[in-house]
Automatic annotation (TrEMBL):
Chain positions covered by the region annotation Disordered: 523-551
Listed Pfam families: CBM_2, CBM_4_9, Glyco_hydro_10
UniProt keyword Oxidoreductase present: no
Lineage: Bacteria, Bacillati, Actinomycetota, Actinomycetes, Micromonosporales
Signal sequence, renumbered to the chain: 1-22
EC assignment: 3.2.1.8
Keywords: Carbohydrate metabolism, Glycosidase, Hydrolase, Polysaccharide degradation, Repeat, Signal
Catalytic activity annotation: Endohydrolysis of (1->4)-beta-D-xylosidic linkages in xylans
Enzyme class, first EC level, given as a word: hydrolase
Descriptive protein name: Beta-xylanase
Organism from which the protein derives: Paractinoplanes toevensis
Domain GH10: from-to ranges: 187-518
PROSITE patterns xrefs: CBM2, GH10_2
């Protein structure tokens, strides 16, 4: 038996139609260690190779079907959908190692949806995790289920198994493999995110796996705040009425305290991941919204917050008290959850009032997604304004910021932030990730280079905006630590996403440089040990290896194309006169008469007094030798409007044409 310690199991969920997963997301992926296979069962020896049934199933090597070779594993006599072929991996899996499990499945007859799941047990307590969700399987062909699984706790039983969604039909299994890739050391010679972004804490949502080994090193190096992603939700902390369980969250909180990390609590109240019993009467029937039902539900809510809140006390400085209560399609803007249909707004009022009593010094937040959509933003604003007018202690508005490489715009996000400033609440970015996908129909075997570049620019632009509004924003949290463990691998469809700053081997991506030093987006060389000052929003002329070396490798044409009292329009053309391409560019100049850029297209701009820095857009950063890129802008002026006399591009002085 392994040592007894209980944490949550972290899983990254993937369902794909190939036997292997290509996940190279950074320039040095080719140098990553080769995967090591620890299980390879093809049933060609005529045995079941260690597989057993979870109940009364009959397992046998069979020649009736085969994915490869001449045999597969036949599974008959299934008595329940959750019963199927299982393999004990207690003595194979090591805690903190991410394993890729791959199985090929087909039905003997008909069709169903198959899942790949894990059962772990400690003493008499069993837990079940889905590694690959429901995937259509028929008798007409083989289907591959592939997913990653990381064990983050000590257990005395661990197995993975195949189950189905709706029938107990017989099935075949073949070519089962389990492998892992040896951990790659994290990069210690790159700037810490938390040391560059100093205006507010920068955090990551974590599971038990993120406090172990290299993941824990990456977490403590770069971040100064954590959010337990699932461990503090109702189903984890109070699975049965009055029975509280903190075994998932306690190790995460202890790790944060030991490493000096701030903690965001997520979440007291949500319409998801709330056990069914919460909305049932004592006799098991569903509540309908009577006065008695309302009183019972609010009593349960109060009891839950008092117990969970008191258990952690001042250790958790910020709480998402209520989560995702807005539905902008409703006339009143409120989500028709069971909470709302039974209690109206009183569940929100009660949650905040009780949380304030139990946690008098904590920041209390209302949290929602898509708040950069005007209708949702306005509905949330109206709710917060109304409740604060009643004296409800809402300290904070949380913007989740689950976005993608093409949405939303900076302007939409800035309008979101500006909207809540008059309410006098702090604002937090609570669950940020940037998907490489722009529709549910896309599925890339490996993240395309152009999407990763677009992602880097999106991170660059969003973090620049957040830092611009540092007086309004008190923290930014990413919904995950690295691409090896992200909820977007299964939502809205199963496919490998890459939404975070670090790739599946925990190496820095261009997205990381978008936050830390945008001049290095797209570069592949080792980073300097400290970031250039341009990463703080103050334009400088620090060199960048993405540019051709040597002076006069660029030529600039600056033209005023229109002028009126107090304003003007400008056009700038950058020509690469060097012998190597630019992979990204940053153009710097000084205005001489206090001119100010008010709008810019085909790039993005930061301005500190007279110092201007313009960064390329996602589509015009690569400039070949002899090639050019252009951008335009609107500006304001008073008195005079002289043209700048000198320019530098990526630290190199340019010729003025």
């Amino acid at each position: 038996m392994r040592a007894l310690a209980r944490l949550t199991v972290a899983t990254t969920l993937i369902a794909v139609s190939t036997a292997a997963i290509a996940v190279a997301t950074h320039a040095d992926a080719a140098d990553a260690p080769a995967p090591i296979t620890v299980i390879n069962a093809d049933f060609e020896d005529g045995t079941v190779e260690g597989f057993t049934g979870r109940s009364a199933e009959v397992l046998a090597a069979s020649t009736a079907q085969a994915h490869g070779g001449t045999r597969s594993l036949s599974v008959t006599g299934r008595t329940a959908t959750w019963n199927g072929p299982a393999l004990n991996v207690l003595d194979t899996f090591e805690k903190g190692t991410s394993y890729t499990i791959s199985v090929w499945v087909r039905m003997a007859d008909g069709s169903d949806s198959a899942r790949l799941s894990v059962e772990r047990r400690l003493a008499d307590t069993a837990n079940y995790e889905t590694v690959v969700g429901n995937t259509a399987v028929t008798s007409g062909g083989w289907v591959n289920l592939t997913g990653r699984y990381t064990l983050s706790t000590d257990v005395d039983h661990l197995s993975f198994y195949v189950e189905t969604a709706s029938t107990t039909g017989s099935l075949f299994l073949d070519d089962v493999t389990v492998s892992y890739t040896p951990a790659v050391p994290i990069q210690t010679d790159i700037p810490n995110v938390k040391s560059v972004v100093t205006e507010f804490p920068v955090g990551a949502a974590i599971t038990g796996a993120e406090i172990l080994g290299e993941h824990g090193q990456l977490l403590s190096k770069h971040f100064n705040s954590i959010t337990p992603g699932n461990a503090l939700k109702w189903d984890a902390t109070e699975p049965a009425a009055g029975t509280f369980n903190y075994t998932q969250a306690d190790p995460l909180i202890a790790y944060a305290k030991a490493n000096g990390l701030a903690i965001r609590g997520h979440t007291f109240v949500w319409h998801n991941q709330t056990p069914a019993w919460v909305f049932q009467r004592a006799d098991g029937t569903a509540m309908t919204g009577t006065a008695d039902d309302k009183a019972l539900l609010l009593d349960r809510l109060e009891n839950h917050i008092r117990n969970v809140g008191a258990h952690y006390g001042s250790a958790i400085g910020t709480w998402d008290v209520v989560n995702e209560v807005i539905d902008e399609s409703q006339s009143d803007g409120m989500r028709r959850s069971s909470w709302y249909t039974i209690t109206g707004l009183d569940y929100i009022r009660t949650a905040f009032k009780v949380a304030r009593e139990v946690l008098p010094t904590a920041k209390l937040c209302i949290n929602d997604y898509n708040t950069n959509v005007a209708a949702k933003r306005d509905a949330l604003y109206n709710l917060v304004s109304t409740l604060k007018g009643e004296g409800i202690p809402i300290d904070c508005v949380g913007h989740q910021m689950h976005i993608n490489v093409s949405w939303p715009t900076v302007a939409e996000t800035e309008a979101m932030i500006q909207k809540f400033v008059p309410l006098g609440v702090t604002q937090q970015i609570t669950e940020m990730d940037v998907s490489i996908y722009t529709s549910s129909s896309e599925n890339f075997p490996t993240p395309p280079a152009d999407r990763l570049l677009s992602q880097a620019y999106k991170y660059r632009d969003m973090f620049a905006l957040f830092r611009k509004y540092a007086s309004a924003i008190s923290s930014v949290t990413l919904w995950g630590l690295a691409d090896d463990n992200t909820w977007l691998d299964t939502y809205p469809v199963s496919r490998k996403d890459a939404p975070l700053l670090f790739d599946t081997t925990l190496q820095a991506k261009s997205a990381y440089w978008g936050v830390v030093d945008p001049t290095r987006i797209g570069t592949t060389t080792t980073a300097p040990t400290s970031p250039s000052s341009s990463s703080t929003g103050n334009p400088t002329d620090s060199p960048s290896p993405s540019a051709s070396s040597g002076a006069n490798s660029c030529s600039i044409t600056y033209r005023v194309t229109g002028s009126w009292q107090g304003g003007f329009q400008g056009d700038v053309k950058i020509t690469n006169t060097g012998t190597a391409p630019y992979s990204a560019w940053r153009l710097n100049w000084q205005f001489a008469a206090d001119q100010t850029i008010t709008q810019l297209w085909n790039g993005s701009v930061t301005q500190n007094e007279n110092s201007v820095a313009v960064f390329n857009a996602a589509w015009n950063g690569v400039v070949p030798a002899g090639g050019s890129a252009s951008f335009g802008f609107l500006g304001s002026w008073t008195g005079s409007n002289p043209a700048p006399t000198s320019f530098s591009m990526n630290g190199n002085v340019c010729t003025v044409a």
